[in-house]
Design goal:
- The structure is a single chain.
- The chain is mainly α and 119 residues long.
- It has one domain.
- Helices cover 75% and strands 0% of the residues.
- The longest helix has 27 residues.
- The N terminus is likely disordered.
- This is SXP/RAL-2 family protein Ani s 5-like cation-binding domain-containing protein.
- Pfam families: DUF4473.
- InterPro entries: DUF4473.
- Keywords: Signal.
Amino acid sequence: MFKSFILVAFVASALSAAPAPEKTPEEARAELLSFGISSQAADGLIRIGTEAKQAAVKPDGSTQSPMEAIGAVFKLFADMDAFMKTQSPEDQAAAKKMFETKKAEDDAKWQNLMQNGGK
């Protein structure tokens, strides 16, 4: 159990620390719509992501500690999951497909990164 917590903590901190090209809300919305998610659900997911991003910066302008970042990632996923449960079955299926596709893409990136020694 402890080993899996360490792994989750490491991955979450790496994800939060790794610079990633940031999408504009319009780009994110277009991507969500391309998976068949309704505009209402897409707007809700973007709102949740925007709120999470804003919460990541403390009032004094500093960033979260690694443990706070891990907690924020779990909260983001929980908020997105709770929101999607209120949406239509079609939106839920489209979101599931999108999350599975994104997970497969991320898994492939991590596998490639590990095979190339982090390069």
